[in-house]
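Human:
Care to share another protein and its fold?

Assistant:
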Amino acid sequence: MVEFSSGSFPTNTVCGGHPGFSVAPYARTAFTPSADFNGAITPITNGMLGTRFEINFRVGCEHPSPSSNCWIPAGGTFYDADMETGISRSTLGPFDNRRLPDGRPSLAGEQDPLAKANAAWLRSPNRWELLRYPKYVVADKGERLVWVHNDKAAPQVVRAFFQLEAGFMAYMGPGSVEGWKPTTALEKQLVKAQDTKSWWVNTQEMVITVY
C-alpha cells in the first residue's frame, strides 16, 4: 500500500492513494515517485499490514540555516518506521547503507522483531502484565515469545516494552509530531524515545527490504 500526503504528514493523508505493487519472493521492484514525494509505503503480507515506512522527499531547503527556520538540506530523505499499525520483518534505509550525519546506523525498522523482543523478554519486570494481552504478546510456557504485534489500541505497557525495553527502531506510539501531549513520566519517556526515530540522509535512493 502506498499513501500520499496532501499536507503536513501524517495530517490530511490520502491513504491508499496509489494502488500499490506486488513483489515476488526474492525479487525486487522500483517505485519512482516525484522528487517532492511525502507519504508512506506499507508492506502487506498475507493480508496483514506490516511496518509503515514514512518517507518525505519534500522537506528541506536549498540554503538551510537557523535564521531561515529550515535546518534540513534539500535533496535528501526524512524518514522513519512506524509500527503503530503493525509489526513486520522489514527495514528501510539508504541504498548504500550510509550512516546518519551523526554517525549512527541508518536502518529503520527491524529485520527480526521477534528475536529483538526475546532479547529483552526475560529481563522485563512486566512479563506477567504483558501476557495479559495475547493480541500483542504470546509466549511459549511463559519463557519465550512466539508472537508480537502492535496497533493504535495497544496498552501503554505493551508499547513501552517494545520502545523502551526492546529498543525497536520504530515509532510504537504517537510522538510529539502527532501533537500528543504526555502527562505522566512514562508517557514523557515514550515521546522522547519516539522522537529520536525520525532520521534524515542526504540521498533519495531508499530501499525497503521485507524479510
